[in-house]
Specification:
Strand order of the largest sheet of chain B: 1-4
Number of helices of chain B: 14
Low-confidence stretches of chain B: 1-14
Distance between the termini of chain A: 63 Å
Structural class of chain A: mainly alpha
Strand content of chain B: under 5%
Largest sheet of chain A: none
Oligomer: heterodimer
Distance between the termini of chain B: 15 Å
Order of helices and strands of chain B: HEHHHHHHEEHHHHHHHE
CATH topology of chain A: ABC transporter involved in vitamin B12 uptake, BtuC
Mean pLDDT of chain A: 89
CATH class of the domain at 91-328 in chain B: Mainly Alpha
CATH architecture of the domain at 91-328 in chain B: Orthogonal Bundle
Low-confidence stretches of chain A: none
CATH topology of the domain at 91-328 in chain B: ABC transporter involved in vitamin B12 uptake, BtuC
Shape of chain B: globular
Helix content of chain B: 55-70%
CATH superfamily of the domain at 91-328 in chain B: ABC transporter involved in vitamin B12 uptake, BtuC
CATH class of chain A: Mainly Alpha
Radius of gyration of chain A: 20 Å
Largest sheet of chain B: 2 strands, antiparallel
Largest interface: A-B, 53 and 52 residues
Mean pLDDT of chain B: 85
Chain lengths: ~300, ~375
C-alpha cells in the first residue's frame, strides 16, 4: 500500500504539469478579455513541433520546448488577428482553430513521418542531498527540468498580473476595455500580447505531453486536456495559485488510472478512462452550485471584442 | 496594417491640423456600416469561400498532389461522374442531419458541441435493438430509429439542464461528455458487443431487415429522412410560432422573458431536438452506411455539423445546401486519400480554412475599410 501511494505521488507532477501550464496561459489571455478556446489545438501544435524539432532538426529535448512555445505562439497569431483585429466571434474562431490545428498536426505528422517515433527524455537535474531525503527525495528525483520551472513560473505570472503595472493594464483591458482605452492603455496591443504569451505557455503544455511524458507523437494526443484546462481556469477563478492547486487535483485523478492498472486491480479499462472528464464535469457543477448567488468573478469583458467606434 | 490600432481616430484628425507629414501619406480608415447590402454580403461570402479553397489547394499542392489533377479530382470526377455523384448523395444525408442539429441549437444561443456524443448514443441505441432482437422483423427499423433517438436525446439532457439551472458553460460540458460517450463506445465494442465472428472491435453485422433500404439507384432512404427533417425544421423555424419564439430568444433572451415567452422551456425543447437530430445522424450511418456499430462511425461529423451550422447562418434550408457541398468535399477527400495517400484529416483542415475565411469576411461585410489621405 505504501509503495503504491508513493509511486502514485511521484507520478502526479507529470500529469499535473500540462494542466498547470495550460491553465496559466489561459489565465493570461482571459484576464485580458480573450477567451482562447483554441487551447486544445495550440497544445497539439506544441506537442507536434517539440517532437518534430527533435526528430528532424536535431534539437535537444530542452531546446524543443522553446520550439514548441514558438510554434504555438506563431499559430496563435491567426487567432489573435481574427478575434482582436477583425472582431470575429471568439467562440467560432476558437473552435475553427482547434479543427484547423487537429487537421494540420495530423497531416504534418504523417507527411513528415514524425508519428510513433520515440524521442529522448527531458534531462533530470542533479539534486545533491535533496535527492537523498526519505520520501520527498524519491518524488523529486523522478522530475525533469520543466517541472522545477513550474512553481517559479506560477509565481512569476502571479507577480506580473497582480503586482506590476503591466498586469494592471492587462486586467483593466479584460475588465473594462472602454475605461482602459480612455486612460490611454492600448487595448488591442495588450490583448495581442496576452494571447501570444498565453499561447506560448499552451504550446509548452503540449510539448510536455509529447516530449516530457509520452516521448512520442500520436494523432490527437492531447485527448481533451485543453478543454479540461479551460474548465480548470473557471475552477481557479482566474487565479494562478488556485490553478496550480486545481492542476494537482486533476493530475492526481489522472495519475491514479495507470497506477491502478499496474497494481493488478481488475477494472474495466475504458470506463476508468472516463474519470478525468467526469471529474471535471463534477467540479464544474460543484463550482456553479456553490457560487450561484455570489457575483460572477470572471473578467468583465471576457469573450467580447472591443470595437472603439461602436455606439452604446 | 499596423495602423489598425488607430481605428476610429478619423473624427479627431478631421479637426486637428496636419502636424507632420507621414512617409506613407494616409491611413486605413475603418467604419461600422449602418446598412448591409444583400449583394455585397453575397459577393463577400463567395469570395471568402473561394479564398479558403485556394488556400486549401496550396496546402494540397505542398502535400504532393499535382496542381493539374486538383481541379480534376475536386470538381470533374466528383460532380460529373455518376458513381461519385451517388456517393455524394449517400454521404450528404448524415451531414444534413448534423448540420440541422447544430443550426437549430445555435438559434437559441446554445453551443451544442456534443453532436458526436449524441451520435454515439444514437448508434448504441440502434445496435442495442439489433443485438437483443427486440420486436418483429417488420417493425425492426422503426424500433432501431426510436431507440437511437431516445438514447441520443437523453444524452443531451444533462448539459442542457446544467446550462439552464446552474449556468454551467455548455461548450465545455458537451465536449467533455463526448469523451465519456467515446469511452463507453470503446468499452462495449472492445468488450461485450465485440463481433463474435471475427473478434474485431465492432458489433456483429446487422441483418437485412435492419439496414436502411435503397429506394432507387443512388437514393437511399436516409436521404428521404434528411429531406423530411429539413422540411420540418424549415417549417418550425420560419413559419411556426416556435420559430418566432426562437428568433426572439436569439435576439435578446431577457426581453423575451419579460414579454412572457417560456424561454427555459423553448431552449430545453430545441436542444433536445438538436440531440434527436444528431442521434438520427448516428442511426443513419450505422444502419445505412456501415451496417454495424464501428468504433469510428461518427468521426468528423461533429466538426462538420458545427461548421455547416455556422456557414448556413442557422438557416435549415441553407444548412441542407451547405451539407451537400460538404458531401462533395468528403468524397473528394476520400478520393485524395486513395490516390495520393492524403490523410482524412485534410478534409477537416479544408473545412476549418473555409470557415476561418468566411468568419473573417464578416469584418468586411460589417465594416467599410478605405484608405484615407
Amino acid at each position: 500500500m505504501f509503495a503504491f501511494v508513493l509511486s502514485w505521488l511521484a507520478s502526479i507532477p507529470t500529469f499535473s504539469l500540462p494542466y498547470a501550464l495550460a491553465a496559466l496561459g489561459l489565465i493570461i489571455s482571459e484576464r485580458a478579455g480573450v477567451l482562447n478556446l483554441a487551447a486544445e489545438g495550440l497544445m497539439l501544435v506544441g506537442a507536434l513541433s517539440a517532437v518534430g524539432s527533435i526528430l528532424s532538426f536535431g534539437v535537444d529535448p530542452s531546446g524543443s520546448l522553446v520550439a514548441a512555445a514558438g510554434a504555438a505562439a506563431i499559430v496563435s497569431l491567426i487567432f489573435a488577428v481574427l478575434t482582436i483585429l477583425l472582431r470575429v466571434n471568439q467562440v467560432i474562431v476558437g473552435l475553427a482553430m482547434v479543427f484547423f490545428c487537429q487537421g494540420l498536426t495530423s497531416l504534418l505528422g504523417e507527411q513528415l513521418n514524425w508519428s510513433n517515433r520515440v524521442v529522448s527524455a527531458l534531462p533530470r537535474p542533479y539534486l545533491g542531498w535533496l535527492g537523498e531525503l526519505p520520501i520527498v527525495g524519491r518524488i523529486l528525483t523522478e522530475q525533469d527540468v520543466l517541472m522545477f520551472a513550474a512553481v517559479p513560473l506560477v509565481a512569476c505570472v502571479f507577480h506580473v498580473l497582480f503586482k506590476t503595472n503591466i498586469g494592471l493594464r492587462l486586467r483593466s483591458v479584460g475588465e473594462n476595455p472602454e475605461a482602459a482605452d480612455a486612460m490611454g492603455v492600448g487595448v488591442l496591443s495588450t490583448r495581442f500580447g496576452a494571447v501570444v504569451v498565453g499561447s506560448a505557455l499552451l504550446g509548452l503544455a503540449g510539448a510536455y505531453i509529447s516530449v516530457g511524458s509520452a516521448r512520442i507523437w500520436v494523432d490527437d494526443m492531447t485527448s481533451g486536456r485543453g478543454w479540461i484546462a479551460i474548465a480548470l481556469v473557471i475552477f481557479s477563478r482566474w487565479r494562478p495559485w488556485r490553478a496550480l492547486g486545481g492542476a494537482l487535483l486533476f493530475g492526481g485523478i489522472e495519475a491514479l488510472i495507470p497506477k491502478l492498472a499496474a497494481s493488478g486491480v481488475r477494472l474495466p479499462q475504458y470506463l476508468v478512462m472516463m474519470t478525468p472528464y467526469l471529474a471535471t464535469l463534477v467540479v464544474m457543477i460543484w463550482m456553479a452550485a456553490a457560487k450561484r448567488n455570489s457575483p460572477p468573478d470572471e473578467p468583465g469583458a471576457l469573450g467580447r471584442p472591443y470595437v472603439r467606434e461602436e455606439r452604446r | 496594417m499596423h495602423d489598425m490600432t488607430n481605428v476610429g481616430k478619423s473624427h479627431q484628425s478631421d479637426i486637428a491640423p496636419v502636424a507632420k507629414k507621414r512617409w506613407y501619406r494616409g491611413r486605413l480608415s475603418v467604419e461600422v456600416r449602418r446598412e448591409i447590402g444583400g449583394w455585397h454580403q453575397a459577393a463577400m461570402l463567395a469570395g471568402s469561400v473561394l479564398m479558403g479553397l485556394i488556400l486549401s489547394g496550396c496546402i494540397l499542392v505542398a502535400a504532393g498532389v499535382p496542381a493539374t489533377s486538383l481541379v480534376q479530382e475536386m470538381l470533374y470526377s466528383t460532380l460529373l461522374d455518376a458513381t461519385n455523384l451517388r456517393t455524394v448523395l449517400f454521404q450528404a444525408s448524415p451531414l444534413i442531419l448534423v448540420g440541422l442539429s447544430a443550426a437549430i441549437a445555435f438559434q437559441v444561443r446554445f453551443w451544442n458541441l456534443g453532436i458526436e456524443g449524441q451520435m454515439i448514443f444514437g448508434g448504441l441505441g440502434a445496435t442495442f435493438v439489433s443485438l437483443f432482437d427486440l420486436g418483429p422483423d417488420y417493425a425492426r427499423l422503426p424500433l432501431m430509429a426510436l431507440a437511437a433517438i431516445l438514447a441520443g436525446t437523453a444524452w443531451a439532457v444533462l448539459p442542457t439542464l446544467l446550462k439552464l439551472k446552474l449556468n454551467v458553460n455548455e461548450i465545455i460540458s458537451t465536449l467533455l461528455l463526448n469523451y465519456v460517450a467515446l469511452d463507453l463506445l470503446f468499452h462495449l465494442v472492445y468488450g461485450a458487443w465485440k463481433d463474435p465472428k471475427d473478434g474485431f472491435p465492432h458489433s456483429a453485422l446487422y441483418r437485412a431487415s435492419e439496414l436502411l433500404p435503397v429506394l432507387a439507384s443512388g437514393i437511399s432512404s436516409a436521404l428521404v429522412i434528411a429531406a423530411f427533417a429539413t422540411a420540418t425544421l424549415a417549417y418550425l423555424t420560419i413559419w411556426s410560432r416556435a420559430g418566432i419564439y426562437m428568433r426572439f430568444i436569439e435576439a435578446n433572451p431577457s426581453v423575451a422573458r419579460a414579454v412572457g415567452i417560456p424561454v427555459q422551456r423553448v431552449i430545453l425543447v430545441v436542444v433536445l431536438l438538436s440531440g434527436a437530430l444528431a442521434s438520427l445522424a448516428g442511426f443513419v450511418i450505422v444502419s445505412g452506411q456501415e451496417g454495424r456499430l464501428t468504433q469510428s462511425f461518427f468521426r468528423g461529423y461533429g466538426v462538420s455539423g458545427v461548421l455547416i451550422g455556422f456557414l448556413a447562418r442557422n438557416n435549415p434550408i441553407a444548412a441542407a445546401a451547405v451539407a451537400m457541398l460538404m458531401g462533395v468535399l468528403f468524397v473528394a477527400g476520400q478520393n485524395l486519400q486513395v490516390f495520393y495517400s492524403i490523410p482524412q484529416a485534410m478534409v477537416q483542415l479544408i473545412q476549418a480554412l473555409i470557415v476561418i475565411c468566411v468568419a473573417s469576411s464578416d469584418f468586411l461585410i460589417r465594416h467599410r475599410v478605405s484608405w484615407v489621405r
